[in-house]
Write a structure and sequence with these properties.
Distance between the termini: 92 Å
Number of strands: 8
Order of helices and strands: HEHEHEEEEHEE
Structural class: alpha+beta
Number of helices: 4
Helix content: 25-40%
Shape: globular
Largest sheet: 5 strands, mixed
Oligomer: single chain
Strand content: 25-35%
Amino acid sequence: MKNIMTNRKLSLLAGSIVLVLGTLACVVNLGGPAYPSERIPVSTEAVTQVQDILGTADAQGAQAGKINLVITEAQLTSYLADQLQQQSEPLITDPQVYLRDGTMQIYGKASQGYFTANVKIVISIGVDAEGQPKIELTSANFGPFPVPPSLRDMITNMARDAYASALGSAVTHFQLESVTIADGTLSLVGNVK
């Protein structure tokens, strides 16, 4: 009888250890905002297209004095995914960028230890009085993770830096006139100073 009790305790202890180790080995998804049902495809071709669009901006501005950049959701999603893959600790993974209703909506997955959560970042882009982009973080939802104010500032600065690095040297000569975000496209129109 004593052996049976000892075996049961050992079995219960072993089962508990296996359960705890199994839980630690897994990543726990804590939910968060659901991705839209329509997935944006990611491709290296789309990244190349963005690089080509930005590369021809200088030539277009030099010839016409005006630049009109139109970038699609697939191109932006692919470009963002490519940029995030180059980071050792990206803010998010599995990005999806939706250009709808005048805003840029970025979905992704954030990780903290063994926990992951879906993320939704909404950015509005306008034009300030000097013809520079006015980029504002409208909302950030990191599921159950708290969003500290410093993270909001960091995301806004990252968006501004991405704009500046995307235009490269043309950014200092580019005066933005309008930004339109609708129906899956981002359109930037401006003049070369």
